Amino acid sequence: MSSVTTKIPTKSLLRLFISSPPKPPISHFFSTATAEARTQKLERIADELLDLTKLERYDYSILFRLKLGLNRYGPAVSGASSAAPSAPGSGSGAAESKAAEKTAFDIKLEKFDAAAKIKIIKEVRAFTELGLKEAKDLVEKVPVVVKKGVGKEEADGIIKKLQELGATVVLE
């Protein structure tokens, strides 16, 4: 595991060098011996990057983004919450905060009463804007996700209506 943390994906490294403006040489700030040691270190890292497989590069890119505090959508929110996960023993705190940040939900119809099938089809048509045949086919495929990417308030309203009709609904 420790060898994975010292390797940087080639694409990320190239993107870093290509997109960043030229900087003064490090030798201006340090002695030449230190600069040579850093150059050798960078050459070693570059050689290790070239030896990685595609899967290893992908895994490392994810690990590298997490270590930098980046997620798929950009930098993490700064403030007190970003300092908390770095404390020892708070690894589960990061998972809890990601679960709490979820804003889009999927509504899954698990099962329903056969007597209420027509009412459920009508309700599914109302919030999915599907035609009668499409809504009927969707309801008959139980268990099925009937709506994706719904906000919490809208999802709660839909779930309440479907449960009143006798359906078992899960929020994912």
User: Beta fraction of the residues?
Assistant: 5-15%
Question: Which ranges are low-confidence, i.e. pLDDT below 50, for 5 or more consecutive residues?
Answer: 78-90
Order of helices and strands: HHHHEEHHEHHEHE
Characterize the biggest β-sheet: 3 strands, antiparallel
Number of helices: 9
Give a written overview of the molecule.
By secondary structure, the protein is of the alpha+beta class. It is built from nine helices and five strands, in the order ααααββααβααβαβ. The protein has helices spanning 2-5, 10-19, 32-51, 54-68, 80-83, 91-100, 117-128, 132-140, 152-164; strands spanning 70-71, 74-75, 105-112, 144-150, 167-171. It has a three-stranded antiparallel β-sheet with strand order 4-3-5, covered by helices on one side. A two-stranded antiparallel ribbon has the order 1-2. Helix 7 (117-128) packs across helix 8. The longest helix has 20 residues, at 32-51. The two termini are 33 Å apart. Residues 78-90 have low confidence and may be disordered. InterPro entries: Ribosomal_bL12 (IPR000206), Ribosomal_bL12_C (IPR013823), Ribosomal_bL12_C/ClpS-like (IPR014719). One of its GO terms (molecular function) is structural constituent of ribosome.
